[in-house]
Write a structure and sequence with these properties.
Elements (H helix, E strand, L loop, with lengths): L5 H9 L3 H9 L4 E4 L3 E4 L2 H9 L4 E2 L6 H9 L9 H11 L5 H25 L2 E2 H17 L6 H15 L11 H24 L5 H7 L4 H32 L3 H6 L4 H12 L5 E5 L3 E3 L2 E3 L4 E4 L1 H6 L29 H17 L3 E8 L8 E8 L3
Helix pairs in contact: 6-7, 6-15, 7-8, 7-11, 8-9, 8-11, 9-10, 9-11, 11-13, 11-15
Length: 385
């Protein structure tokens, strides 16, 4: 029996108009020009080629992420830079999230809240949406140097980021002046916290490590803001969806019994959920993509979700072709620099949940008015597999 397609429900709840249009574009071929939107790419091979070519397809031109976020984060963060300046900043940040450091950071920050989560799983139902928000808030709080160490403060931190990101839709090209002011009202105080941690220079902290790596205070503030906006919701929305997929497809017990399957399960859940459903680039010089000519100034919308879902429904045993590998984290010069931190966090939380298996879903509802599709609640409890 085929399980209900809750992933489609999540997308429709989040984007009731844009999502059907996005999926309709997939049916028109690997690449299609859509009036008012731009050149839409639905093929993983074409998408990877675009992402690998940072000279032709850039993040700092019209209709790109740079146009969207520069008014909020400033000019010197990785997601709105290209060329030599981008390469120089990325080189300095390469050592920031090495696996050994991210594992230690997540252990230091998450062990206590995960112990509490394990106890709650033993005693009754747990909302994985709320739990994932607490964990994501705890990690990003550590990254920016937040002193508070309570679940309530972690929830508040996550909700601050959600307020900023929810002002963006799949169709947003740039933020309005009121949206910029709203975002700055959230991010400026967090930037002050990050700057304080930077000034302290403690190399056991992320901000202290940025100082040791030679970043200026403005660069460190901008990086902290970018990590806050791009990393928090990605992890928090993925964790409930991962476990919903495993439970719905009858694979939870299998992954719990075979820990070596966890990374495969995470990768497959990310493919299906596609936490970055679209990516934007601006054409910098004339080129041809899949036989379609593109011109400088045009907007390219990589429909990452269409590229990923073309492989089919959730299936732990289906290998990912090379062109699809971790496409949801980007490719080439802009591959997500926070990938090791995201994976360390997901693995640590997932292991706690898998240790409580078998789990059953007792209640769930889709979230509305969000950029990244997710559950509003997903309550699980221990029960028969």
């Amino acid at each position: 029996m085929t399980p209900p397609d809750w992933e489609r429900r999540l997308y429709l709840a989040a984007h009731p108009f844009a999502y059907p249009l996005l999926r309709a574009a997939a049916r028109r071929g690997p690449i299609v020009r859509v009036p008012g939107v731009g050149v839409v790419v639905n093929d993983a091979s074409l998408a990877r080629g675009i992402l690998m070519d940072g000279e032709t397809f850039r993040k700092d031109g019209p209709g790109s992420p740079g146009e969207l976020w520069t008014p909020v984060l400033g000019p010197s963060v990785l997601l709105n830079m290209e060329g030599d300046a981008h390469r120089a900043l990325r080189r300095r940040l390469t050592e920031l999230f090495v696996p050994s450091y991210t594992e230690a950071l997540c252990a230091r920050v998450l062990d206590e809240p995960l112990d509490r989560l394990a106890g709650r799983l033993s005693g009754g139902g747990v909302d994985l949406v709320d739990a994932a928000r607490v964990m994501a808030g705890a990690v990003i709080g550590e990254v920016i140097g937040l002193d508070a160490r309570t679940d309530a403060s972690y929830r508040d931190l996550f909700e601050q980021g959600e307020r900023v990101v929810s002002s963006v839709s799949l169709r947003t090209r740039r933020l309005s002046p009121p949206q910029v002011r709203k975002a700055r009202a959230v991010l400026d105080p967090l930037g002050d916290i990050a700057a304080k941690a930077y000034a302290a220079g403690d190399e056991s902290t992320v901000m202290g490590r940025m100082r040791a790596l030679g970043l200026s205070e403005d660069e460190a503030r901008g990086a902290a803001g970018a990590f806050f906006l791009t990393g928090t919701e990605t992890v928090a929305t993925l964790l409930p969806r991962l476990f919903a997929l495993l439970i719905d497809h009858g694979q939870l017990a299998r992954v719990a019994a075979e820990p070596s399957l966890l990374d495969r399960a995470v990768e497959e859940a990310m493919r299906v959920a596609t936490p970055t459903p679209v990516m934007l680039r601006s054409v910098h010089r004339p080129a041809a993509v899949g036989g379609v000519a593109v011109r400088p100034g045009e907007r390219v919308l990589i429909a990452t979700h269409n590229c990923c879902r073309a492989l089919g429904p959730f299936d732990l045993d289906r290998p990912h072709p090379p062109e699809l590998r971790r496409l949801w984290f980007g490719a080439g010069p802009h591959f997500c620099i926070g990938y090791p931190l995201a994976m360390a966090e997901i693995r640590r939380v997932a292991r706690t949940l898998l240790a409580a298996a078998p789990l059953v879903v007792t209640r769930r509802a889709a979230a509305r008015g969000v950029l990244i599709p997710t559950y509003r609640e997903l309550v699980v409890r221990k029960g028969a597999a």
